[in-house]
Write a structure and sequence with these properties.
Largest interface: A-B, 23 and 30 residues
CATH architecture of chain B: 3-Layer(aba) Sandwich
CATH class of chain B: Alpha Beta
Helix content of chain A: 55-70%
Largest sheet of chain B: 6 strands, mixed
Number of strands of chain A: 4
Shape of chain A: elongated
Number of domains of chain B: 1
Structural class of chain B: alpha/beta
Radius of gyration of chain A: 31 Å
Helix content of chain B: 25-40%
CATH topology of chain B: Rossmann fold
Oligomer: heterodimer
CATH superfamily of chain B: P-loop containing nucleotide triphosphate hydrolases
Distance between the termini of chain B: 43 Å
């Protein structure tokens, strides 16, 4: 094996890559733009849509409202609710809820009367039902509004009765209960990012390398340049390694740019994400986490490059190669997504699973946890998988039937 | 010099089983000689040339190119040959100069040597006008001239040309034919496959007629004409492969 020959192949392939618009888009443009677009676009889109739903006046039905005029008045006071004329049939009300002509239904039972507390007559089974459709976000929001108003109505009834009897309100509510989230908004955002970022970076590394891997294998077959290359004194191993290192470099550049874009978008104070969060956000990621991510992307980029080349060389054409590679992308997405799973965290067994290990170790690092053993196992096992993939790619490159299949 | 002895290469086809694409082929080609492999599509021409250029490995037989054994020393064999086929593509995002530099460096031709060789091929093939244009902007004829330059950039003593004029128009084919004549006068060893009788007639010192993986007749043009008792090479060919021509006056 001659390193000078590998370097010659590498330099030529890299020059070729730099002139390929498709690779440039997936290698440079996509990783740089995806994070700001995701934040600004998605953030304001979701926030805007939620606000819109909160502000909207949504139609609701009250079945049996004649038995609870106070409740009806309370509901009507809320501008976000629009009580539509009565329907007394619950079957019809249910149908209207499910076909979304109303967003919630309040059912006052037949035995209900507002005077029940003073009567002392029917203290049991006084239940006011609220129906909602949880498959519908708007219905879910309306349910919360209705629940608040029904609660206020209940309080007003209790206060009235207490007042009548000269008793203090303290009697029924000696103290209040409040839950507090002690995590700062930046910590919350950090947890969300630790879930999303490993997945995004792994996926971008993969998609970034895809075009160049296909172009320099199946693309070379399709254009009729492979045969000329095979007649050169360079050995198959040198050719594969030259192409492999080029693809790996492309993957690393994609990953690096994704990291830069990610840091600028999420991690810096005054970043787009911070502004989206109302300027309050002060995320402080450990620089060690960023260095660790970059280091772990080396074996991941190597593994992807070798696997992509081994797969794409089997295809006769660019298009055929694409259809071979897509299943691989899905195969990568599943373990990469592991960092999003609730309770995600690396353990020794998982540190041996390709892609999954990197995803989990990155997740932990972003959450501020470093386990040296797991990091080393992840790094070493990923390199071993990459080496196996390269070995397979070289073997495939030596198969006459594969190379000359046209 | 090329020496081929009892070369055999088979392929397994899912439907037809084992096919002998090359079946005990032997021939010799000397420096300053153009040896033509003449045969219809599927006769085994391309497989033979791929075996000689070491892209494929033979099942049996021996290949020697410039005294190097193709099985024992494929690297030296590859260094000694320039290979060109009709469907040879070029890297379309690179310029002619970049492509020539790439291949030259793979053959170990670098620095001042390369510049000198580049000057020679640019003059010989008149490349200067489009040498720094990306090849996807070039005409078929211009691309073919770059391909020829690529074939000879390392000054190979042996040229292996697989239907080099296939798919080319008259002007582009003429460039190839002139190139072959030139190479012959430079005492290179030239192996050339074609199914175009006129080209074979015009260029080849000796012709091997190949059919179903075997060389069924071999000799100079004159020897073949005498053997098959006709002046028409097409007729020679048909008689050699065991077919009678269907002439209206017959």
């Amino acid at each position: 094996m001659n390193f000078a020959t590998i370097w010659i192949v590498y330099r030529k392939e890299f020059l070729d890559v730099l002139r390929d618009r498709r690779t440039l888009i997936s290698m440079i443009l996509l990783p740089l733009l995806i994070f700001p677009l995701m934040t600004v676009g998605m953030g304001s889109f979701i926030a805007g849509r939620m606000a819109k739903l909160e502000d909207r006046s949504s139609p609701i039905l009250v079945v049996g409202s004649e038995r609870a005029p106070g409740l009806l008045a309370q509901l009507k006071m809320n501008n976000g609710l629009q009580v539509i004329p009565q329907v007394s049939d619950t079957t019809q009300a249910s149908q209207m809820l499910l076909d979304r002509s109303v967003q919630a239904v309040v059912i006052v039972p037949a035995s209900f009367s507002e005077g029940f507390i003073s009567d002392g007559s029917m203290f049991t089974d006084q239940k006011i039902l609220i129906w909602s459709d949880k498959s519908n976000t708007e219905s879910e929001i309306v349910e919360r509004k209705v629940r608040k108003e029904v609660g206020a109505y209940k309080d007003s009834l209790v206060s009235r009765e207490l007042g009548k009897r000269g008793l203090p309100r303290m009697l029924v509510e000696p103290f209040s209960i409040e839950s507090q989230n002690r995590a700062s908004s930046s910590k919350m955002a950090g947890a969300v990012l630790a879930m999303l970022l490993p997945y995004m970076v792994i996926l971008l590394t993969m998609t970034g390398s895809t075009y160049s891997a296909i172009d320099m294998t199946a693309g070379e077959k399709e254009r009729g340049t492979l045969e000329t290359l095979l007649v050169c004194p360079a050995t198959r191993l040198e050719l594969v390694l030259g192409k492999f290192f080029t693809t790996m470099t492309v993957g690393m550049i994609t990953a690096f740019l994704a990291m830069v874009s990610m840091t600028m978008t999420f991690l810096l104070p005054g970043s787009i994400f911070a502004k989206e969060m109302g300027g309050q956000l002060q995320l402080s990621f450990d620089p060690a986490a960023i260095i660790l991510i970059l280091l772990l992307l080396i074996p991941i980029a190597a593994l992807f490059a070798a696997a992509l080349i081994a797969i794409a060389i089997n295809a006769r054409s660019y298009k055929e190669a694409q259809s071979y590679v897509y299943p691989l992308i899905i195969l990568v997405v599943i373990p990469a997504v592991a960092s999003i799973m609730p309770g995600a965290g690396a353990d020794t067994k998982m540190a041996f699973m390709p892609v999954l290990n990197v995803s989990l170790v990155l997740h932990d690092a972003l959450m501020g946890t470093y386990d040296t053993n797991l990091i080393l196992i992840t790094f070493a096992s990923s390199l071993v998988y990459a080496a196996i993939s390269i070995f397979i790619a070289v073997r495939i490159f030596q198969k006459e039937s594969v190379l000359l299949r046209v | 010099m090329i020496t081929v002895n009892n070369l055999v290469k088979g392929f397994t086809d899912k439907k037809r089983g084992l096919i002998k694409a090359v079946d005990s082929i032997s021939f010799k080609c000397l420096p300053g000689e153009v040896y033509g492999l003449l045969g219809p599509n599927g006769a085994g021409k391309t497989t033979t040339l791929r075996l000689l250029s070491t892209i494929l490995k033979p099942d049996a037989g021996q290949i020697k190119i410039c005294d190097h054994d193709a099985l024992l020393n494929p690297g030296e064999v590859r260094r000694s040959i320039g290979f060109l086929s009709g469907d040879t593509g070029l890297y379309r995002r690179l310029t002619g100069r970049e492509i020539l530099k790439y291949f030259a460096s793979l053959y170990g031709v670098k620095g001042a040597d390369f510049n000198q060789r580049l000057d020679q091929v640019v003059r010989m093939l008149e490349l200067s006008e489009f040498l720094d244009t990306k090849t996807d902007k070039l005409s078929t004829g211009q691309k073919q001239r770059i391909s020829i330059a690529r074939t000879v950039i390392h000054q190979p003593p042996v040229l292996i040309l697989d239907e080099p004029t296939a798919g080319l128009d008259i002007i582009a084919s003429r460039a190839i034919i002139e190139f072959i004549s030139q190479a012959r006068s430079e005492k290179r060893t030239i192996l050339f496959s074609t199914h175009v009788m006129r080209e074979a007639e015009r260029l080849c010192n000796r012709i091997g007629i190949i059919h179903q993986g075997r060389i069924v007749a071999e000799g100079t043009l004159k020897e073949l004409r005498d053997q098959f008792k006709t002046d028409d090479l097409e007729e020679v060919f048909l008689r050699a492969v065991g077919l009678q021509s269907m002439r209206l006056d017959n």
